[in-house]
Amino acid sequence: MTRSLPENRGRSDVRFHTGVREALNDPQIRANFRSAMDGLIHKRRNAFPDPAALERLRLRSERIRANALSRLPELLEQLEQRCTANGIRVHWAETVEQANEIVLGIMRQHDARMLIKGKSMVSEEMGLNTFLEQQGIECLESDLGEFIIQLVGEAPSHIIAPAIHKNRQQVARIFRDKFPDIPYTEDIEQLTRNAREILRKRFYQAPVGLSGVNFAVAETGTLCLVENEGNGRMCTTVPPVHIAVTGIEKVVERLADVPPLLDILVRSATGQPISTYFNMISSPRRPGERDGPKEVHLVLLDNGRSRIYEDPELIATLRCIRCGACMNHCPVYTRVGGHPYLATIPGPIGSVLEPQKAGLDRLGVLPTFSTLCGACGEVCPVRIPLPKLLNRLRYEGVRKGSGALPGAGSRRGRNESLLWGLWRWLHTSPRLYRAAGRLATRLRHLLPNRLGPWTRVRKPPRIAARSLHQLAHDQEFDHE
Amino acid sequence: MSKARDNILSRLRTARPDLPGGELEKTASPPSSTPNQRIEQFRSHLEAVRAEVYLSGRDEWVAELQRLAQEKRIGSLLYAPDGPLGSAISKGWDEQTKPHLKWFEQEIDNWKEPIFFDTEAALTSARAGIAATGTLVLWPTVEEPRSWSLVPPIHIAVLDTSHLHDTFESLMEAEAWHQGMPTNALLVSGPSKTADIEQTLSYGIHGPVQLIVLLLQ
Per the CB < 8 Å rule, is A196 touching B205? Predict the structure, then answer.
């Protein structure tokens, strides 16, 4: 169900453009996203009635995350040491391949043929389901949204609400096709109950449960999970083995860092005062305890994060707490949904994060999936300057020579760089600029009617007969 | 995989950017509230997410719980005879009427099937409560294992109002959580719910369908 990344190199953005066009032409997608995003925007706004208090909380949350990043190697070591002392087994993976092998190894140790999963974007990043299924191991998503899209082999289109692109009729039809014995219903509460019954048996049987991690606390070796459904608690409580997978950036220094982050995460994501469950796991079942997994494994995944860490500006990407507010407020995301991004994480944060991981040669088009309106940066709970980072990555894509970023400079085209070279030349010499202006107004009728993609859906711009300079001169405006 | 570990850590060490550290200031905590304000806040938040909250006296709650359970036609109730509520229950429960009390001994392997498919309701104590968000704080124990508040369709929790704190932050500080965490600490703020279909709120997905809180004062 996880899509492979596009193999196209250089300026071939065709697959992205096709996806965008398909999404724009699908009224169902447009309607589903518009209403869902409007709802989420509204709920978030109501959750933060006091703008000054929100700003204080954002500032504090930014500092907590920035502080954790500034001490990342030490905190990771401390986390490992505390977790190990608590009985949690810690594994390190530089690549998704290594992470997948670690999970497979644990499954094989227990002769386990089935894995029940709570929601985890890192497991999506790993392509874990596809990998394990190739090894004959069944992976079952248990978050309701993830469960629905897994039934039809689709990828999540939103990090918090993965099946947001489906409406109730579509979900009802999926249930009818996949579970013909259950009476057809379009009632959401009944659909929810049906999923409960189906998945209950699977929680009961599952030999291994997998989850992501929202915050990993170095001070106490505690893994924190935020959720509403209880499937995360099921996956981490009932099966005899629990595997948690997380990116190395999710660590925080102290337990006291958790309450403000939890507060701003949940309110930014869904507008609730708090999620139904906040699950803090510090060890496997201790002697005498009567339930809980006997083994807990923590897989720490790098996959390019340590490279993002090198750049003093781009490191802000790693502050992200995955609330989804930036996509909820993005005018581009709202119109096309998550699928056309062809990456694990869509929306503004995905457009910043994913090209840094996969390379600008593969996903360098994503930073252009933005109008630079600034909404994402304004709502980000940890104040990641997303518009600035989008701009930076646009520059890195077309820069001269190659930088530290993978694929830097790969989007540089000869015609485009020549044109900009000419533009710069004209704009740095007043004489040339005036001459070019005169020429442009004289020759304005020679402007072709077709100007690339611009005129596909628009009229070509027309150059005025007299320039603003000339008009101002006629009006005898002062030179300045 | 210790090679992966060393590679990652050494990359991070070499690359470490010059980031401003500095003291983290706390957000001003809300002015402390009176016990009654806390109860009201706690109750209104929980009721807003379809949990039921009942105030009861410290001496009458067992009888009231039984009456409530009968009203809800609960046939049997899972409880912990050795847990913090055990002695009050065994003293005050009317064995002649429903619900019947039941408990599980030994480890989950011995009661996994009945808790999944043959347990209507479970009773547990709550360690504390958080007024600002309407939250129960559970630290499951040997006597009251963590699946009891999760698997049965109805979870009944008993919380003494003297354990109500203003915020998660103030609770954590007051109880010095950083000095030692249990295997599993839980914040529970309502019955399980989802909005994964059309962003429409729907209760009773994987965790309890109903959450009933008895507040003792």
Answer: yes
Domain-wise residue ranges, chain A: 1-47+311-412, 60-303, 431-474
pTM: 0.94
CATH code, domain carrying B65: 3.40.50.10420
Q: What is the pLDDT of residue A10?
A: 45
For chain B, say whether A191 makes contact (Cβ under 8 Å): yes
Residues of B in contact with A67 (CB under 8 A): 21-22, 24
| Helix H or strand E segment including A395 | helix A386-398
pLDDT at A372: 96
Question: How many folded domains does chain B comprise?
Answer: 1
* Least Cα separation, residue A235 to chain B (angstroms): 11
pLDDT confidence of residue A404: 84
For residue B15, being part of any structural domain is answered with: no
Q: A205 and A239 in contact (C-beta within 8 Å)?
A: no
pLDDT at B19: 64
Task: Count how many pairs of residues, chain A against chain B, have C-beta atoms within 8 Å.
Answer: 262
Which among A92, A221, A233 has CB closest to B5? A92
Q: Is A189 within 8 Å of B202 when comparing Cβ atoms? A: yes
Label residue A473 by pLDDT band (50, 70, 90). Answer: confident
Is the pLDDT at A478 greater than 90? The verdict is no
Chain A residues with CB under 8 Å of B211 CB are none
Q: Do A237 and B182 touch (CB under 8 A)?
A: no
Within an 8 Å CB–CB cutoff, is residue A85 touching chain B? no
Q: Could you report the per-residue pLDDT of A443-457, keeping only the tens digit for each? A: 988 888 888 888 888
Query: Can you tell me whether residue A183 is helix, strand or coil?
Result: coil
Residue B23 domain-assigned (yes or no) = no
Contacts of A309 in chain B (CB under 8 A): 11-12, 15-17
Give Cα separations from A215 to A50, A85, A105 (angstroms). Answer: 26, 19, 25
Q: List the CATH code of the domain at A1-47+311-412.
A: 1.10.1060
Contacts B197 to A, Cβ<8 Å: 144-145, 148, 163, 166, 168, 171, 188, 191-192
pLDDT tens for chain B, residues 1 to 217 = 589 999 999 999 998 776 665 555 565 566 678 999 999 999 999 999 999 999 999 999 999 999 999 999 999 999 999 999 999 999 999 999 999 999 999 999 999 999 999 999 999 999 999 999 999 999 999 999 999 999 999 999 999 999 999 999 999 999 999 999 999 999 999 999 999 999 999 999 999 999 999 999 9
Per the domain annotation, does B172 fall within a domain? yes
Minimal C-alpha gap between A453 and chain B (Å) = 35
Residues 6+ apart with CB under 8 A from B139: B127, B182, B184, B185, B186
Contact A92 B22 (CB under 8 A): no
Q: Which residues of A touch B187 (CB under 8 A)?
A: 274, 277-278
Q: Report the distance separating Cα A265 and Cα A386, nearest Å.
A: 17
Average pLDDT over residues A57-69: 96
In a domain, B102, yes or no: yes
- How close A27 comes to chain B (CA, Å)? 15
According to CATH, the topology of domain A60-303 is Rossmann fold (3.40.50)
A226 conformational bin, left if phi > 0, alpha if psi -120 to 50, beta if neither = beta
> Is B43 in CB contact (< 8 Å) with chain A?
no
Q: Which domain holds residue B164?
A: 33-193+203-216
> DSSP string covering B140-188, please?
--SSS-GGGGTSSSEEEEEEEGGGEES-HHHHHHHTTGGG---SEEEEE
